[in-house]
Write a structure and sequence with these properties.
Blueprint (H helix, E strand, L loop, with lengths): L6 H22 L3 H11 L2 H11 L4 H14 L4 H20 L10 H13 L10 H20 L26 H9 L6 H16 L3 H5 L6 E2 L4 E4 L8 E4 L2 H18 L19 H14 L8 H14 L4 H8 L4 H7 L4 H11 L1 H15 L1
Antiparallel strand pairs: 1-2, 2-3
Helix pairs in contact: 1-2, 4-5, 5-7, 8-9, 9-11, 9-13, 14-15, 16-17
Length: about 375
């Protein structure tokens, strides 16, 4: 049986093949014949022959559907499944452009070129993908091939050695308490949407929840009498119980008593935060809302939900909160992640040294005595 290939495919295969042969011989000193066999396997050529001869090719879409069903079975959120589908459809398009039609013929070189294509990919706003988005897409690609490998769909995992790009550091600028105050005061206190938006903003800043966690809240997750908020299926599929600060509780109570009944269309609707249509608010709605209120509050840069979470953590640390308590509030597994959110400025460190360092305190007392003399 012959597999039709174009001259471009053949040329690309030969380049990759020779690179593998040379690398294998240099690294392990294998005889040339054995190195050629291993190189053929590394390039996916042997697997492609076996699959084409036995099954007529493997459907990428079929494996994609199975993978998405697996994610749903393990209670991944809709947004996570959407990102997985988006990432894998981009990969499918990339592979088809290179005439790779079988999942078994995908090699590490194909995925490396996919990584480079993501770096050049433009968003709808005409900007390149952030390193965070690239990490998200590539993480889903690695999960997909790990899924296939565990089920013996493929003989080897071509994504095993693909490295994720280093994510960007959090923005240097943190919202000041006065900016947060202006932002929280921006919504109308009398309209149903204004009451909802004020409750949303207070929840972001008061409890430091993530966007998906906030819009995923049900009425049963909020206990205003106990001033507790139950986050279900947070990042990493973890649940956590959070305290609700007083001002946040008042805003949520006002919305629950006045605003939500005016937005509610279906009495069976469980979502806490509702849109005008009576459904659960969407991520895009919250982003538009924050952009609008940021401009209304006179904040010069664009506001994202994570900015309020970041501000909450940073303000707590500056006020003397223990970083372990902040870690619990944010729901971080590693304290190193919390340290990124609570990056302390030089001025904060200088104030801490002046207040707490023993030699610094002695020096300040001596300077004060000299002034008295």
């Amino acid at each position: 049986m012959t597999i039709p290939v174009s001259p471009q495919q053949l040329r690309a295969f030969m380049v990759e093949f020779l690179q593998h042969v040379n690398a294998l011989r240099a690294d392990s000193g294998l005889p040339e014949v054995i190195a050629i066999v291993f190189a053929l396997q590394d390039c996916g050529y042997v697997e492609a022959l076996i699959v084409e001869a036995t099954s007529g090719g493997a459907s990428f879409e079929k494996h994609l559907r199975a993978f998405l069903e697996e994610l749903e079975l393990h209670r991944y959120s809709k947004s996570a499944r959407y990102r997985a589908r988006r990432a894998l459809m981009l990969l499918s398009h990339h592979l088809k452009e290179r005439h790779v039609r079988s999942i078994h013929a995908v090699s590490e070189a194909h995925l490396t070129s996919f990584v480079r294509s993501l770096q050049r990919l433009k968003t709808r706003r005409g900007t390149t993908l952030s390193s965070h988005s690239q990490c998200t897409y590539l993480s889903m690609v690695r999960c997909f091939f790990r899924f296939l490998d565990k089920r013996s769909v493929i003989l080897r995992n071509p994504a095993a050695r693909i490295r994720l790009p280093r994510p960007e550091r959090l923005p240097q600028r943190v919202l000041s308490p006065s900016e947060v105050e202006r932002l929280l005061e921006a919504p109308s206190p009398t309209s149903a949407l204004g009451q909802r938006d004020r409750a949303l903003l207070e929840t972001f800043y008061g409890t430091a929840v993530r966007l998906q966690e906030c819009i995923g809240l049900d009425v049963s997750d909020v206990d205003l009498q106990a001033a507790e908020l139950w986050v279900r299926d947070g990042k990493g599929k973890k649940d956590r119980l959070l305290p609700i600060p007083g001002r946040t509780a008042r805003a949520m109570d006002l919305y629950l008593e006045e605003g939500r009944p005016r937005l509610l269309h279906d009495p069976a609707q469980r979502a806490f935060f509702l849109s005008l249509s009576g459904r659960r608010v969407s991520q895009s709605l919250v982003h538009r809302m924050l952009r609008s209120y940021g401009q209304l509050a006179g904040i010069p840069h664009r506001i994202y939900p994570h900015a309020l979470r970041h501000a909450c953590a940073t303000h707590l640390l500056r006020a003397g909160a223990d970083i372990r308590h902040i870690q619990e509030l944010l729901g971080h597994h590693f304290i190193e992640t919390t340290a990124l959110y609570t990056r302390v400025q030089v001025e904060d460190l200088r104030a801490v040294l002046a207040r707490a360092h023993p030699r610094e305190r002695q020096w300040r007392r001596k300077e004060a005595d000299k002034q008295v003399e």
